[in-house]
């Protein structure tokens, strides 16, 4: 009984290592993307505290750096409108909190009242969710903090204004290319898809169920990056529509948005391929030709990600995909028939997704597979 348990433990450890490596890979991406924005926000928060402390003479101006950090955060996508929205929400919450605390003092009713007033007034002013949340949060903080412990009621409002002003200054002076973050996430998502397909190709070529399980584990861990890509490109599209300087990026953003939807669809197909491939390999299926086609899809996905991430032409990826389509005829597969045929049919669907993500229409992609 000890040997099977030992073998199972080794397999569980291997699967854990695959997931840990994927998590570390995603963590490194997030750190690289957030490093500069966090550094800029930290400097701005420190400067806002210095202005309120040394310039205005406030002994404990902690609302200044709080407002700056809340408005800027760790993202590079600092739209002036959203920063202004957050700055207004923080200042509104502080002001209402001061008013409620001055009129009726602290307590249960004061906290309830400042939430109601702050949230409803914020909803009246603008539809932004974060504005409403910050108005309520900052109002609660003000009501709950003793006025005597800091620089008086007007000092806290002034600190919030100073912090919000610094955040706005940073947003105005550091304009962001609306395409940059969306392109980075496109490259990361398609790199994940490429790695997963490459692992599945090795599993099918070697008849190795564990590699197929590794591929499935990789596929299941990628949804967060795909969701981030979809969210970032959607927000970038909304901003570009109202920004005179960013409006020229709309065609490329539309291309990235379409590719985001199709890549998500391709990843879902890839997970099904990994599941069906695992079942096939466990029954003794091993095929070099289908594995080579799967490897070709992995190469094409990687090249497509590089092209979308850098804004280059996707013709190279389309060419690789066109070559792979020649190997994706279910009628040409060897025995055992139905299992490999199922995999090829699923791969054809994934190929159509990638061809469309590369810029082809649905009709053009289907034509390549029916020639």
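^ structure tokens above, recovered residues below v
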């Amino acid at each position: 009984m000890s040997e099977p348990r030992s073998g199972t433990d080794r397999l569980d450890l291997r699967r854990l290592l695959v997931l840990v490596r994927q998590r570390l890979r995603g963590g490194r991406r997030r750190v690289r993307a957030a490093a500069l924005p966090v550094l800029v926000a930290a400097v701005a928060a420190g400067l806002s505290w210095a202005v309120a402390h040394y310039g205005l003479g406030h002994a404990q101006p902690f609302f200044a750096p709080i407002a700056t950090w809340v408005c800027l955060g760790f993202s590079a996508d600092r739209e002036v409108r959203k920063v202004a929205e957050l700055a207004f929400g923080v200042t509104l919450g502080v002001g209402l909190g001061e008013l409620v605390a001055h009129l009726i003092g602290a307590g249960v009713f004061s906290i309830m009242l400042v939430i109601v007033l702050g949230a409803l007034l914020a909803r009246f002013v603008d539809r932004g969710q974060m504005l409403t949340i910050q108005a309520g949060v900052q109002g609660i903080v003000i009501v709950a903090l003793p006025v005597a412990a800091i620089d008086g009621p007007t000092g806290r409002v002034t600190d919030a204004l100073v912090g919000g002003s610094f955040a706005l200054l940073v947003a105005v002076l550091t304009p962001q290319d609306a395409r940059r973050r969306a392109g980075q996430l496109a490259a990361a998502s398609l790199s994940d898809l490429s790695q997963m397909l490459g692992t599945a190709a090795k599993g099918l070529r070697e008849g190795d169920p564990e590699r197929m399980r590794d591929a499935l584990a990789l596929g299941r861990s990628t949804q967060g990056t795909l969701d981030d890509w979809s969210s970032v490109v959607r927000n970038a599209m909304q901003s570009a529509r109202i920004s005179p300087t960013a409006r020229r990026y709309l065609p490329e953003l539309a291309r990235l948005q379409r590719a985001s939807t199709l890549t998500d669809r391709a990843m879902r197909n890839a997970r099904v391929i990994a599941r069906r491939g695992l079942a096939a390999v466990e029954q003794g299926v091993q095929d070099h030709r289908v594995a080579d086609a799967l490897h070709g899809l992995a190469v094409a996905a990687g090249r497509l990600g590089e092209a979308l991430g850098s804004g280059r032409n996707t013709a190279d990826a389309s060419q690789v995909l066109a070559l792979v389509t020649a190997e994706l005829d279910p009628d040409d597969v060897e025995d055992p028939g139905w299992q490999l045929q199922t995999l090829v049919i699923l791969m054809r669907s994934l190929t159509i997704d990638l061809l469309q993500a590369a810029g082809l229409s649905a009709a053009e992609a289907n034509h390549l597979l029916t020639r």
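Residues 21-173 form one domain.
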